[in-house]
């Protein structure tokens, strides 16, 4: 239980640090946010928990394919905001489009 709490605290601290740094420098915050910290931490925690390199490799490949539909968020959100749509609605619509892109990607990956 203590190990799980440590994982949660470390993960949350990284997100909080990136958010705070973004207040001071958008470019630096974007740079840090673009580094796949969450993916790296997930792979690290998976390996520590299982010592299974094959599972880590599979996770890495699956993450690669799912990064592609996640880009929809970063394309659609600024478009909605430039059209002066409310921030929360823009985020909601962008998340909806991203979810649809994930669904389409998973459907296509199953077919291939």
Helix segment tally: 5
Could you tell me the number of beta strands? 0
Largest sheet: none
What does the radius of gyration come to?
17 Å
Question: Roughly what is the average pLDDT, rounded to an integer?
Answer: 91
The structural class is: mainly alpha
- Write down the overall geometry: flat
Distance between the termini: 40 Å
Strand content: under 5%
Characterise this structure.
The chain is mainly alpha-helical and 112 residues long. The chain has 5 helices and no strands. Helix 4 crosses helix 5 (87-111). The longest helix has 30 residues, at 53-82. The radius of gyration is 17 Å and the shape is flat. 2% of the residues are buried.
The gist of it:
The protein has 112 residues and is mostly helical. It has 5 helices and no strands. The longest helix has 30 residues, at 53-82.
Salient structural properties:
112 residues; mainly alpha; single chain
